[in-house]
């Protein structure tokens, strides 16, 4: 029994809500953000298990899918509203910026030097990634092979309009990005794989971009299963018109 990449995406995220991802998928250790593309469900038994779980958790999968669709709709509506006030919020430009960030960060990650993309990431974040992951693996004689084939989709999950540090400063956009890639951790002086596999697979990640001085930069990268945390926050986001009024009152 097999299932489509889209259903796999729903299912992976549904597992997180049930805490089954730890049992069935395993822990992530590499890739930008400190994660590695998971190797679960690549074998025939794994695909059979996946197919059975799709049936078992179908109601939850559908519910999560609906939540994500509603969150994306709200985010796009608010971005379109803000785009009339500033080109920084134009969705086409934002998607292009997110694409550039994704590609450049992965390229720098493969080179084991994310300082080369400092202008595309917040300072504290790229420094943390370099020290906590890349430098640590280098000292342990490990290297993360992270090859990107293509970006399949970029979907907004949550948009928060802020008015800090100047015009629209600290506005935040959370995106769900799915890409086909190869991601594994191996010994530097051999081909022995420590984590992951050489299989090309669709990988879901959640990227947070933050606006500072008119430029969107990467502020965080998380596993795709964290998407539900953000879509649940949508109901707490104030009406976009209220945030603009607040901004106007501050000036």
Give an account of the 3D structure:
This protein has one domain (5-249): Nuclear Transport Factor 2, Chain: A, CATH 3.10.450.240. Helix content is 43%, strand content 25%. It has eight helices and four strands; from the N terminus they run H-H-H-H-H-H-E-E-E-E-H-H. The chain has a four-stranded antiparallel beta sheet. The model is unreliable at 1-7 and 14-29 (pLDDT under 50).
What distinguishing features does this structure have?
single chain; 251 residues; alpha+beta; Nuclear Transport Factor 2, Chain: A; four-stranded antiparallel β-sheet; 8 helices; 4 strands; disordered N terminus
Strand residue content: 25-35%
Quickly count the helices.
Answer: 8
Q: In percent, how helical is the residue content? A: 40-55%
N-C termini distance: 60 Å
- Classify the fold: give the CATH topology: Nuclear Transport Factor 2, Chain: A
What characterizes the major β-sheet? 4 strands, antiparallel
The outline comes out as: flat
Strand order of the largest sheet: 1-2-3-4
Structural class per helix/strand content?
A: alpha+beta
How many beta-strand elements? 4
Mean pLDDT: 82
Spell out the helices and strands N to C. Answer: HHHHHHEEEEHH
Q: Number of folding domains? A: 1
* CATH architecture group name: Roll
